[in-house]
Amino acid sequence: MLKEERQNMILEIIADRNKIRSAELSAHLKVSEDTIRRDLRELAEGGFIKKVHGGALANPKTPESIHRRGSAPLAEMQVIAEKVLPSIKENQVIIMDGGVIIEHLVSLLNPDISLTVFTNSILVADRLVDFSSVEVYILGGKIAGRRRVSNGIDVINMLQEVNADLCIFEISSIHADIGLTGNNRDIALTQKAMITAANHSIGLCLSERIGRIQPFRITTVNYLSYLATEVPKESGMLHSLIQKGVHFI
Amino acid sequence: MLKEERQNMILEIIADRNKIRSAELSAHLKVSEDTIRRDLRELAEGGFIKKVHGGALANPKTPESIHRRGSAPLAEMQVIAEKVLPSIKENQVIIMDGGVIIEHLVSLLNPDISLTVFTNSILVADRLVDFSSVEVYILGGKIAGRRRVSNGIDVINMLQEVNADLCIFEISSIHADIGLTGNNRDIALTQKAMITAANHSIGLCLSERIGRIQPFRITTVNYLSYLATEVPKESGMLHSLIQKGVHFI
DNA sequence: GATTTTCCTGCAAGTTTTTGCGGTATTCTA
DNA sequence: TAGAATACCGCAAAAACTTGCAGGAAAATC
């Protein structure tokens, strides 16, 4: 990997997360911590970031870092993304939904990993295109609102011909008896198609959404291979899910 | 292979991949790394790319994320976009390709216009989603490199069921006798399908690309309803096109 | 058509950049 | 304040770069 390329990646990560530790960067980019420190020093000298003991912070001057999306529970999402990361293995064919957690997940991916990814999210596709060994397929269809994902019959049609190893998607609501639900029929049908098109599925779910029920049924919980959430297993509400056979990450 | 020819290939590769190593270019173009370095140095001096230790990166100078041939034709692209703008009318169904000119065009659109747009460009789709009265459909398929457009059989399949009023696309090469051509088979076939799926088509073409011939045939010129370019009509080379029945905007 | 001139390319020698590592200093944390 | 984590420094090897040069191709000139 070229030095400048690596430094650009560091800048992107910092723009995304506002902070980063040298050790993490070293592991992620597969270079020594010394090299990372040298990079950080150069970037700091150029005024792009602020270097601190242990890593670096986003430059307080740039308004860029404040544009953080919504007031969503960022830290929790980060935790979930990190939990799911090891499930993504070299050379897999993966279907990815859109959403903030999944965008985090993508930013954690090893830049040299080789994958084939089908996604209905414009933002996820946009980011993955920069991975040189990832083949990206965008699932065509009507794009709904701000989430920037395509939904509906076209997506479902295209998924019919896909047989993926893994489907990674964000869960809007999950309930032990009712199953997975959403508040939009098209999106619900699309997610169902995604799950069906893959051998295994991992649902990413903020704990606040566990137990919630929304109008449109996606599937029952037993179609879900794994559930990734940020709370420890003991949490009461999860027990009925575990009894239903849901595995946790 | 001529030097200039080789440098153009280097530019295209960088425009597509956003980065390249000298060693790769050397192997691919079958010349020594020294020659590649000399090429990169010249291109960097012309401001077309950014040379770095080990290879080169796309030029970050240009405001938009797509880097075409240097910064020169930006003004011309603006002119073309402005010429085409009046052709887009309320309530039309439009197929849009990707490319810098088209991105300009989108940024000129009236924010309240009502349209239905099919596009294979992630960037175009991303921008159009913010228009409240525009229905955006992304054409699914494999995303090719840096241009961030989907191509190939999936796109073509999806277009089969579309019947649009207008197709707006960027022309890579046009020649009065040979017709429209491109340097990538998948893209060529995709563009052909786009043109076929619409009643009328407008090709956006920088004048420097008029008269050029590339390996893959898209269609003959008579499938083109209008050609939009930045030079006045008197220009010599255009006459043979006019005689072939091409209309100019 | 022959000759001169200019340009292009690959090679070799020497220089610079990049990177990881060991050793040491500094900073953080309990 | 001790121990751990982090940072810095200098060094060495590998990779990449620069430069000058020579053979050969292309273009210009006569």
Give structural notes.
The structure is a homodimer of 249-residue chains. By secondary structure, the first copy, chain A, is of the alpha/beta class. The first copy, chain A, has helices spanning 3-17, 22-29, 33-45, 74-84, 100-108, 122-128, 153-159, 185-196, 238-243; strands at 19-21, 49-52, 55-58, 93-96, 115-119, 134-138, 141-144, 149-151, 164-170, 173-175, 179-182, 198-204, 216-219, 226-228, 247-248. In chain A, the strands form four sheets. Chain A has a seven-stranded parallel beta sheet, sandwiched between helices. A three-stranded antiparallel beta sheet of chain A has the order 1-3-2. A three-stranded antiparallel beta sheet of chain A has the order 10-11-13. Chain A is globular, with a radius of gyration of 19 Å. The A-B interface holds A 2-5, 122-123, 125-126, 129-130, 132, 135-143, 145-146, 148, 150, 154-155, 158 and B 17-19, 21, 50, 52-55, 57, 122-123, 125-126, 129, 135-143, 145-146, 148, 150, 154-155, 158. β6 (134-138) of chain A pairs antiparallel with β7 (141-144) of chain B, so a sheet runs across the interface. The structure holds a DNA duplex (30 and 30 nucleotides).
